[in-house]
Specification:
It contains eight helices and 14 strands. By secondary structure, it is α+β, with helices and mostly antiparallel strands.
Length: about 325
């Protein structure tokens, strides 16, 4: 015989089961949902790197005397995860080579750390910059391309125009020394330099050499090609004169035009109290005085420049 208490316990269990069954049936019939056990989101870090070139400018390389382009690279490292990141290492590679490293001690969830750096590239070249961030549980990276092509035409920016006169460039200095060593001992240096340029550089239109109507050559390139047009002659001669000791106040490239709006480039030098003398670089020493005057008499100067100065005329 079951006791009274046992009978009551069984009855209570049966009633409870019946109630639960009825509730389940009601939920299913009404499209209801069962109570869910809360899901615990895993805690993890997730780094995100962003990088871009924000600005840049042209400058002169102190070692080569040739143009360099300086790029400013902005980058940021973000933690887009839901756990804090500790000891984040930031590494920058340029063309696959280590450039710089830095560390971020801590980066909490949703935090961003921004920074920047500048780097130089040789004219007419590009480099690949890779910014990489890593910590114990996450890593990310982004690559950007830096560099620029030198404007090969007239620019109203003095900082660019002045870069074309390169009196310290190694090939030009070597050529200047060779010309001076081989000149007739009674011939002035400036005359020997203009004589060499006029006799050894062949006139050639830019569209023949470079496939465009206007393409300014650096003196190094004119020496290699042994061809050029008017401004290439003038830039080469001015660079040789500056390399031979003419001051930045006394030797210039001049750009001008005639009544038919035809443009021309030549050089001019100062003889102090004797005044200025305009040189047609395409001529040789025999053109001095009369030939130079006849060649340039129809042109009006618009500007003059060298590696340190730029001046608008008129």
């Amino acid at each position: 015989m079951f006791s009274r208490k046992a009978i009551l316990l069984f009855a209570a269990i049966a009633v409870g089961a019946l109630v639960i069954g009825l509730v389940v049936q009601f939920q299913l019939r009404e499209g209801g949902n069962f109570p869910q056990i809360p899901f615990q989101t895993p805690r993890k870090t997730a780094l995100k790197v962003s990088a871009y070139v924000s600005a840049g400018y042209w400058t002169r390389n102190d070692n080569t005397d040739l143009p360099d382009y300086v790029s400013n690279i902005q980058y940021s490292v973000s933690n887009i995860g839901n756990a804090n990141a500790a000891d984040v290492n930031v590494t920058v590679y340029v063309d696959g080579n280590l450039y710089t490293t830095s560390a971020i001690p801590s980066l909490v969830a949703s935090q961003t750390n921004a920074s920047s750096f500048s780097m130089s590239t040789t004219y007419d070249s590009t480099s690949s910059v890779l910014v990489q961030a890593s910590c114990k549980d996450s890593a990310d990276s982004q690559a950007v391309s830096v560099g620029s092509s030198l404007p090969r035409y007239w620019s109203d920016e003095p900082d660019i125009v002045e870069l074309y006169v390169t009196p310290k460039e190694a090939n030009l200095v070597s050529m200047k020394d060779a010309i001076i060593r081989s000149k007739f001992f009674l011939s002035p240096n400036w005359m020997a330099l203009r004589d060499w340029v006029g006799n050894n550089i062949k006139y050639k239109y830019d569209n023949e050499t470079h496939g465009v109507n206007d393409y300014w050559q650096l003196p190094k390139e004119t020496l290699e090609l042994r061809t050029g047009d008017c401004e290439d002659y003038a830039i080469l001669l001015c660079s040789l004169l500056r390399a031979d000791g003419w001051s930045s106040n006394d030797a210039f490239v001049v750009l001008g035009k005639n009544a038919e709006n035809q443009y021309h480039g030549w050089a001019k030098i100062s003889f102090g109290i004797l005044g200025w003398y305009n040189i047609e670089p395409q001529g040789n020493a025999w053109a001095t005085l009369i030939g130079d005057f006849l060649s340039l008499s129809g042109y009006t100067a618009m500007c003059q420049f060298n590696d340190q100065q730029f001046k608008q005329i008129g």
